[in-house]
């Protein structure tokens, strides 16, 4: 994958960065931790402009985030509660849990989106509850843009400064990404094993 991403960015430039960051949000196994430092390194060699590299990466990431936001919006609170009522163990939520989660996201949605966009794996997942909770699209885009812009700037800037050693960024971040995935899977399995039906939901 490393050689393929390298060749794709060199051949495709800004449009390639946009497409790879879009794919990274829709198909998470493509890592931004490799794409953006490589793009920053390419900018350091004078083949691309660093500012436009960051803009292209941010735009691609936001486009992918909007895709998952609308998946969450399509699912909606009522449909998710119905799904939890029928298959609560496997979604690890009762209808009452869904309500509590929705209330929490309504209170902390802006911060959840901003900080979520800075955490590997969570970056993709945070768009779904935003859509489910009905977070206004302009607010979602604004907070996502802030978090995503900071993330892509840090990665591209690291690649720009490290230049030929830009792979060090992914070497440091890949274990963190793996740990986050392992924790999410472990939490899910724990929830499945210990799931108990919660209280009765409201009629919302």
UniProtKB/TrEMBL annotation:
Superkingdom assignment: Bacteria
Keyword Phosphoprotein part of the UniProt annotation: no
InterPro entries cross-referenced by the UniProt entry: DedA_domain (IPR051311), VTT_dom (IPR032816)
Localization terms from the record: Cell membrane
Membrane topology, as annotated: Multi-pass membrane protein
Pfam families (alphabetical): VTT_dom
UniProt keyword Transmembrane, yes or no: yes
Membrane-spanning residues: 12-30, 50-71, 140-160, 172-190
Keywords from the named record: Cell membrane, Membrane, Transmembrane, Transmembrane helix
Record-annotated VTT domain positions: 30-160
GO cellular component, one term: plasma membrane
PANTHER family attached to this UniProt entry: ALKALINE PHOSPHATASE LIKE PROTEIN (PTHR42709), UNDECAPRENYL PHOSPHATE TRANSPORTER A (PTHR42709:SF6)
Protein name listed in UniProt: DedA family protein
């Amino acid at each position: 994958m490393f050689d393929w991403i390298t060749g794709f960015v060199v051949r495709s430039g800004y449009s390639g960065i946009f497409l790879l960051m879009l794919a990274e949000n829709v198909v998470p196994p493509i890592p931004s931790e490799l794409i953006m430092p490589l793009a920053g390194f390419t900018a350091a060699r004078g083949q691309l402009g660093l500012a436009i590299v960051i803009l292209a990466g941010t735009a691609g990431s936001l486009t992918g985030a909007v895709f998952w936001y609308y998946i969450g919006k399509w699912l909606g609170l009522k449909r998710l509660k119905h799904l939890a009522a029928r298959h609560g163990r496997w979604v690890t939520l009762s209808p009452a849990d869904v309500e509590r989660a929705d209330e929490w996201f309504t209170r902390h949605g802006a911060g959840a989106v901003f900080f979520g966009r800075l955490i590997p794996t969570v970056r993709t997942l945070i768009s779904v509850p935003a859509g489910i909770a009905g977070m206004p699209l302009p607010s979602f885009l604004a907070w996502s843009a802030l978090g995503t812009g900071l993330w892509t700037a840090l990665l591209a800037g690291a690649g720009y400064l490290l230049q030929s050693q830009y792979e060090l960024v992914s070497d440091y971040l890949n274990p963190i990404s793996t740990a986050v995935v392992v924790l999410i899977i472990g939490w899910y399995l724990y929830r499945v094993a210990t799931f108990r039906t919660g209280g009765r939901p409201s009629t919302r």
